[in-house]
């Protein structure tokens, strides 16, 4: 207990919720934040408008969506819980302990995020098939692979493996930012590492864990491709299966998903509380916790996670590609041709990803600023509007943008152009940038801003020489997260990209859809390579700015 | 740090260039046709390119799932850029026809195919056919034990061994055909029989074929060409097609459909394209390259396929099912098979 008090008393990190920096946000900020929130709420408006206009039959809706809704909630709760545990555990092992090889593993740990989930699921299924890497590995340790890989368990496992980086990244960053003085004090006072973790470190990770868990939760709600392949019937299946034959039903189900998302976003905001305190102590390295006899078991655990989440999918994809190159005579048989044809899509993918990343951060900035610096009812509304979009299937977002751009006067000339496609990405993925941007804003301590003001620096000067440099790393990390989501995006890209613009994900889908696995494998590997490179540039190198 | 900054500047410049480059519009006065196609790139692009080359008409193509593109055209309404919609299945064109979003094809185009392979109101025309088959794993199912009829699949010998894809349009078309042939009661009984027989549900045909190849399930109801594709990539792939007798419902031929979107500003080019798809060259392409059944111009199916002419097939008039997919889905759902 003494240590916890000591910790909260350290001046480096103001740990407890502080009062608002100003009683009421300035009018300009309120108006801008509200305007961007409206942009983010556009799909919501469309879904409700259609659901009401088409007259969704509530009785039939309840009858049809009850069981799938329950399954969706189960999957989302289970996945966000396990990602919270796995992401936090990995982060602690890789950042705060003397685990062998931790610096290499740190670079690898976030990479499962780059797999589009349907590719991940398909690769996983293939890995468990006779001759697959995962089956082979299981046989080595004397376990028979299951004959079938479908239902809740497998969906839970696959989603956990491909989304835990949403928790891992912010938690690892937060851990890195905690001052070493605490641990030294704890040791001096004779506290065990376990007590230290539970009483001192964990409370400071709460917000990072909750924020990451929220993204995983929303992601699980909107997920379609992977759970469909894994034979798990969720609410998104209702949305897709009824999209032609019973549109009222389809939009009714989408409305239910939206309500669920808003409730969860608001609940998380309440649970997370006001504290956005960020402290940095970059000057001194923490002394790693000695794992002792747990060193090797811990290493084995980390390697096992990375093997299953990273190596297994890569092996399956490589196997598909290789099979096409060696045995095949179909498309995908000529490596040089295939790689050549992926060059343009790879460029388009990188460009769209970067464009969407930058624009999204610009768009959420006013909302994030408001949420980070002020406690107001408006902040809650804005936050729900921005985050809610992540729970909608991409198809719904795309159709809503079609609707708005064709029905708002003057916007129809942007129809199926790059600006509209970028707008779809911004609306869909604002949630991913929101938290990181809030943290970037909070990285400028009130004390410093106050001092600058008292010293007579003009607002412009304060913005360029104080705020911008301190925020920049965090903002770039936010760009990186959006970029990663964008390069995998499929439905909006298919419907809204200009014709003749191909991305790696559309290429991948076109091959995968009709079972051209060799081509799909190559396109996936290219996608993983491009997004891995961009992630490393933007996110990994500055991961410590995410907390 | 400085190098990172330079790199980022270059990347950002790339984004700006992307904005200019990707947005490049075409010449409005040129002859052009915009196609939304549910047929994937591998299957249709070569023939579209050939059309562009031979006619000098510019071709703009948007690929996607047939259902999604149908929704898109409906949402776009009168302002759709699409001139032609090519669908994997009759149900998506049926939806658009029902919504009044399709124009009428000229009679001389419609008459190129048998009457059952086109819409009575002339809103769409079939241009190739996929046959329903039973895919099986020869290591698990001796050929002698394969069923004579798709209606036998509800028998106890198939309990827990069959894969189906209720959300898939081809499966739904098959069920619709069964309703036409046998009536709703018999169809319901068959669907319930499948559910009681612990049929495994999959998202689509490719997932079933892959599962059969892995030995996860023994047999599955799919369209014919997925196995040919899988074997072309991986000769050791352990799955074969079993054809039901030609008078069996399990042998149904499902057509892919071409239509002209109402309000198209390039009707002439659009009609030329649809006509092109029904000419000998294109029909031969579908037969030889995508292993589908040709529907027009007297072209014979590829020798890799079991011989079958369209006239031999139990013709089901899909046109009659266009607006009634909802009842089909309701039957599937009522049987306990989610779709």
From TrEMBL, chain A:
Does Hydrolase count among this protein's keywords?
A: no
Q: Chief location of this protein? A: membrane
Q: Which Gene3D superfamilies match?
A: MetI-like
Q: Which segments constitute the ABC transmembrane type-1 domain? A: 69-272, 346-535
Record keywords, A-Z:
Cell inner membrane, Cell membrane, Membrane, Transmembrane, Transmembrane helix, Transport
* Membrane topology type: Multi-pass membrane protein
Biological process according to GO: transmembrane transport
- Going by the entry's taxonomy, the superkingdom of the source organism is recorded as Bacteria
Localisation per UniProt entry: Cell inner membrane; Cell membrane
- Can you list the GO cellular component terms from the UniProt entry? plasma membrane
> Is the Membrane keyword given for this protein?
yes
Q: Return the similarity comment.
A: Belongs to the binding-protein-dependent transport system permease family.
Protein name listed in UniProt: Ferric iron ABC transporter, permease protein
What organism does the UniProt record list as the source?
uncultured Acidimicrobiales bacterium
TrEMBL record, chain B:
Q: Which PROSITE patterns match?
A: PROKAR_LIPOPROTEIN (PS51257)
Under the heading Gene3D superfamilies, the entry gives: Periplasmic binding protein-like II (3.40.190.10)
Instruction: Quote the record's binding site residues for Fe cation.
Output: 225-226
Give the Gene Ontology MF terms in alphabetical order.
Answer: metal ion binding
List, alphabetically, the InterPro entries matched: Ferric-bd (IPR026045)
Pfam families, per this entry? SBP_bac_6 (PF13343)
Query: What's in the GO CC field?
Result: outer membrane-bounded periplasmic space
Q: Which UniProt keywords apply?
A: Ion transport, Iron, Iron transport, Metal-binding, Signal, Transport
Keyword Phosphoprotein in the entry? The reply is no
Q: Provide a GO biological process annotation.
A: iron ion transport
The record's similarity note reads: Belongs to the bacterial solute-binding protein 1 family.
Its name, as the record gives it, is: Ferric iron ABC transporter, iron-binding protein
Q: Which organism is it from?
A: uncultured Acidimicrobiales bacterium
